[in-house]
Design a protein that fits this description.
- By secondary structure, this protein is of the alpha+beta class.
- The protein has one domain.
- The chain has five helices and two strands.
- A hairpin with a 5-residue loop joins strand 1 and strand 2.
- The chain is extended.
- The relative contact order is 0.18.
- The model has no long low-confidence stretch (mean pLDDT 75).
Length: 90
């Protein structure tokens, strides 16, 4: 299952902000104006439906709306590393 951050990274990859460049890249890349602009458009909210499953599940969702009207949505019911979604060697 796709992590919420992966959905965000899919959107920004057109701006050459790929995960390996943003997450593992230099601090100057992370502090770039393009990343700062994206961060200003991100809003984090609490979802009461997801809160009902906590702490049994550590669910998360991400919803992204683009300027051209597209909507991207993903939900993770078990975080990577949980017994239900174990880590792999890949």
């Amino acid at each position: 299952m796709q992590r919420p951050i992966d959905a965000i990274l899919e959107i920004v990859k057109e701006n050459d902000l790929l995960p390996e460049k943003v997450v593992w890249g230099s601090l100057s890349r992370i502090r770039s104006e393009a990343v700062k602009r994206m961060m200003r458009r991100v809003e984090c909210v609490t979802d009461s439906d997801l809160e009902k499953t906590f702490p049994k599940q550590w669910c998360a969702t991400a919803e992204i709306f683009t300027k051209d009207g597209k909507r991207y949505f993903t939900k993770v019911e078990y975080c990577k590393g949980d017994p239900e979604n174990s880590l792999s060697w890949d």
